[in-house]
Write a structure and sequence with these properties.
It is elongated, with a radius of gyration of 29 Å. It starts with 14 loop residues before the first helix and ends in a 13-residue tail after the last helix. The chain is mainly α. It is about 55% helix and about 0% strand. It has one domain. The longest helix has 28 residues.
Amino acid sequence: MNMPVTAHSVAEPSSRSKLIASVLVVTYAVITILPLLWIFLTGFKTPPDSIAYPPRILYRAFGRRLRQPVYNALAANAGIPGQPAAAADLV
């Protein structure tokens, strides 16, 4: 019962070691790119938002644009002084 012997190279990496190496390289690349992406995205923030602590992921103008119609409607329905009556118009 002789088993066939297959030759293998000790210098050639196995498929498992190639997989581990590629996962490590991709992980390192993502970790390295994240600060550069953060710097790029900070360029679109307002100055107060860029130095805010805790950091704001979405800058204030974008968030305000999403929330402002809701705040206007609530203020108009509550009768808050100083809010225009047309603020409830969500056009």
